[in-house]
Amino acid sequence: MGLIKLENVSKIYNDRVKALDNVSLEIMKGDWVSIMGPSGSGKSTMLNIVGCMDTPTKGVVQIDGIDITNLNKKDLTAIRRDKIGLIFQQFHLVPYLTAVENVMLAQYYHSISDEDEALQALAKVGLQDRTEHFPSQLSGGEQQRVCIARALINYPKLILADEPTGNLDEENENMVMDLLSSLHKQGHTIVVVTHDLNVCKRAEREINMQHGKILGEMECEMVCKTG
Ligand code: ADP
Ligand code: ADP
After folding, report:
1. Spatial CB neighbours of 11, under 8 Å, sequence gap ≥ 6
2. How many domains, in total, are found in the chain?
3. CA 12 / ligand 2 centre spacing (Å)
4. Which of 6, 20, 59, 136 could form a disulfide with 11 if both were Cys (CB 3.0 to 4.6 A apart)?
5. Which of 18, 34, 43, 44 for a ligand 2 pocket mutation test, highest count of atoms within 8 Å of Cβ?
């Protein structure tokens, strides 16, 4: 049974922009999938729907066996908090809170208040020496690692990342991708939207999108060998 299942999903904005066009897709527990495609091909729309931030115009979406297609905002939020960790290109850290306070803010939404656990999450991403720093005192790669610690706070089954390395240089990109790789090895299911081929190649499955449709799919090993 797939952790994510999309059946004939379409998303139409303002009655005319077809951002997703009859997409069907199954992602299994433990998969690491990248979604590639040019700007405007529907990647973010797909991630928003899978991440319970938006609902489709047509079709059926299941997350971890739950049909989320017709849920209201409140129920979608509950599922997102229970099952999904989100990582964005823009870090969305609160500038006047320290690294550990930013992670604790995520705990607040899960009704947890445990500084030790927040510190452990930061240690997991290698930031045990940066816990009292403010975002402005951290490098881009370190800020993204705070975001990953924040995303991990509720042990989410599913990690969704939208261009997680879009604002990083190559060294920090590698560090963040190594971290995602170790999370994958620990059993997390990972879906990364990217248009960076190096980021894409780290996944097991590559899904290519164009004009709101899935054009094709390949094993990433093949991309490495041929590319
Ligand atoms: P990508 O992430 O691949 O760049 P998007 O999913 O952001 O693609 O966008 C797909 C299409 O849907 C584009 O034509 C975009 O302009 C449009 N679109 C995305 N979000 C909205 C929105 N909230 N309102 C209207 N149109 C949107
Ligand atoms: P990406 O960097 O992933 O391509 P975009 O720049 O396409 O992201 O979209 C950023 C945000 O703006 C998204 O939340 C998307 O839903 C929204 N958006 C994109 N296109 C439009 C549009 N034409 N009208 C309104 N909102 C849009």
Report:
1. 18, 19, 20, 42, 45, 49, 54, 56, 57, 212
2. 1
3. 13
4. 20
5. 44
